[in-house]
Design brief:
single chain, 278 residues
Length: 278
Amino acid sequence: MTARSPGGLRLAVSLLTAIPAGRVPPPDRRQVRAAMAWAPVVGLMVAAVGAMVLLAARVAFTSPIHDLPGAGTSVETATLASALAIAATALVSGGLHLDGFADTVDGWASRAPRDRTLEIMADARLGSLGAAALILVLVIEIAALTLGVRAHHGTQSLVISVVSGRVAMLWGCTPRTPAARPTGLGAMAAGSVPKWTAVGWTAALVVAAAAFGRWDPEAGSSFAAVRAAGAVVTAVASGWVIRRWAVRRLGGVTGDVLGAISEVATVAALLILDVRHP
């Protein structure tokens, strides 16, 4: 690859995170297609940073009084560690998915005609409902991860949910998914990911998640394996619902919609991963 033709992973890091990836010229559709195929790997990178922050926070803020051996992490420590981990993932990803989610909620709530809805979504100002939805989704993520930490599978929940969000985003870029606008990242990404690429990543993540759930050193079990696989499937299904709404309401996807797909899928996976054995 030349300086004017960045590799797929490097471009994916540049497009989907705030991690410095060197000077990358404006990509074309072929390059974006190659980059989107690396989205799950980028998600794993983001999750790894969040997992390290989660572990460091648990070690740093564990209280010898409240965090007794075998009793699980205290609510205070788990909540603080989860908040810092979620903040870290948002920081590393540049807040792109959160921004797309908030803008998409503003557009959805407007109930305006298609063109006006796209204008609202493109507006840099954040509406009241978009702001409320953004706060709510962060609260849900922190609370859900806190439950995971308390149940000894916080790292599992964080990694599977974040990567699931990126895999779900691939389904918003598969063939027969039009772009709502003629320009922008959404226009280049829409329809650019072969269906079998999305299928392959989904299948690989289902298997990896099930293995993680089964052999997690602290909370591994057959039930956890089924739950982890179900979390991936639920995340992809949630993203598919957002995609269908966008195609019907907007005529296709935008960069904001892809961000919303990723964020909603992440939350869906976190919630499923908190389901307890009856």
